[in-house]
Amino acid sequence: MMKRWMLLFLVGSPAMAADFQASLDWSQRVTLALPVSGVVAMVSAQPGETVAKGRVLASLDGRAYEAGVLEARADLDRLSREAGDADKELERARELYARTVTSTTELDAAQLRQARATALLTAAQARVEKARKALEDSEARAPFDAVILDRLAEPGMVTSQCQPAPLLTLARADEMIARAELTVAQAGGIPLQRPALVQTGGRQYSGAVRAIRALANGRYALEVAFPRPSGLLAGMEARIRLP
Question: Tens digit of pLDDT for each residue in 118-153?
Fold first, then answer.
């Protein structure tokens, strides 16, 4: 009976307080590339720089994409007028048919012309949106407030839609990850979002367990996310405390 109660206690108990040696790493590291082809015209950011969300960090020569938008809009305007004329012709054909002046064949022909004009107009609207999206995609913007980790492109470099060239590597400016390697026994029972403390550089920061990742060596990586103050860099030594 004593053994049974001990087993129930161990299974039902929350994870105990623990302390692990860790190191800091960047949070949400991403490499920016463009999904369209062209020649890089501008790269505005340097490694170590902090940039705001939405800032244009790199762009292609956009003249061809701007021309594509103008061409698509001109085609849309033309087809819009043609669709308006087709609507008017159909209305007249219906009036004449109601007065038995024209035949069913003429009414059917007017309806066919109007349907074709409407379909062409819808396709033209889609081409305008496609051209606008291509122009938008010719610029790389910061997806969040970020710190630039590496600059991989320079003006004059060619990037292809089939094989996009990496332009910049960046990570979140407002958050860091403390990572520790744990055994299976240590990792078991630690829930995600559990409050944690990160000690580094003589200071302590409050965070929470972000992930527990399985490693190839059979161990587990405990990751704790916490707000990043100025001055903290990846690779710094730290300790993770689970209260």
Answer: 999 999 999 999 999 999 999 999 999 999 999 999
47 and 165 inside one domain: yes
Same domain, 132 and 238: no
Question: What single-letter amino acid sits at 125?
Answer: Q
- Say whether both 158 and 99 belong to one domain: no
Would you list the DSSP string of 89-111?
HHHHHHHHHHTTSS-HHHHHHHH
- 200 and 94, same structural domain? no
Residues 97 and 146 grouped into a single domain: no
CATH number, domain containing residue 232: 2.40.30.170
Contacts of 157 (CB under 8 A, 6+ apart): 39, 40, 165
From the number of C-beta atoms within 10 Å of its C-beta (0-12, 13-18, 19+), residue 97 rates as middle
Residues with Cβ within 8 Å of 51's Cβ and at least 6 positions away in sequence, in order, are: 45, 57, 142, 145, 146, 147, 148, 170, 173
What percentage of the chain's residues is helix, strand, coil (to nearest 5)? Answer: 35, 35, 30
Structural domain containing residue 152: 39-60+138-172
Write the DSSP symbol of residue 233: -
Output DSSP code: residue 236. Answer: -
User: Is it the case that residue 2 has pLDDT exceeding 50?
Assistant: no
Cα within 13 Å of Cα(174), Cβ side: 6
What's the pTM?
0.79
